[in-house]
């Protein structure tokens, strides 16, 4: 992840250095991100065939080879922009393989009772690398492009060496027999038949769409008000800070809930609400909390005014609950049978990532025509409606309060 985040910064920097054209920055960034829209689902089927550890090792080795080749072209002075676009495209596709495979791999490396804690630690480390990787990439590129990409290659090769130390995949079939499209359909069916995974995927997709819109509004306001770039970057980083805190709080959520319950028992009307919610397991209502935090994130700039502090609090709140819900979602995915978990992860990731890609485009079209506060209202209204419906309609609410129903344990799958 550290390598992925640093190279995500150095690709556009190198593109501009080669061409002095902002248009090529966009093309290189597009080449590195578009594979996520095209390869998530087939990646899941490939991983289920050959095993997540093997796929991750091969992907990281090939990523290292590609970046090493880029370094060689840089040293020889023969690197062209089309080389960079091609490398970014292939390396981006391989990074999708690793991203999907790691979610399938982690539950098989720890004891069943430790899966949620392991996923929480992993989520926290991912969010930490998001914060650390971008400035590190800029720093290394400032020393020299060759140093930044050499460091990337070293990170990818090191990841492959570490992964090779794990036990061989126990679920890999290693056979090319069978129709790939049929296996992909199995992943779609598995996710759709699981009420929680289906609803949670749709909820996270919707939240991603709204949050990306919020970020576009903030950037538009920051540009209009000539906000210092350092301050703007710090505000955007608040979502990562919240994500780290949320991920590391996840294993202690039940303890926090109990302490909070003791405190609110002193307040009659709050205690009555808490008793109605206490019967549910903590993870079961996390998606509803995430939905309402999205509403809070969208309304804070309206209530406090479109000011830096309001946006910082909004992104901190959505990042905090996002870290918690990510662990909840990944824990639910870990209960899918191990021989098809990667396909289900691929389908879910495709939906949620598509919103990240489409959200800024749609919002930017609206921002060009109306004032930012109007855009916030446009985003806030559907967020309130969806959150209200998912909370008050029993048939909808039950789909987000049924973790484990319709899923199977990895042990059951292997038997």
UniProtKB/TrEMBL annotation:
Q: What is the membrane topology noted in the UniProt record heading this document? A: Multi-pass membrane protein
Mind telling me which SUPFAM superfamilies this protein's record contains?
MFS general substrate transporter (SSF103473)
Keywords (A to Z) from UniProt: Cell membrane, Membrane, Transmembrane, Transmembrane helix
- Predominantly, its location class is membrane
Going by the entry's taxonomy, the superkingdom of the source organism is recorded as Bacteria
Keyword Transmembrane among record annotations? yes
Subcellular location, record wording = Cell membrane
Q: Does the keyword Chaperone apply?
A: no
Protein's recorded name = Enterobactin exporter EntS
User: What residue ranges are annotated as transmembrane?
Assistant: 22-43, 55-76, 139-163, 195-218, 230-249, 285-304, 350-367, 373-396
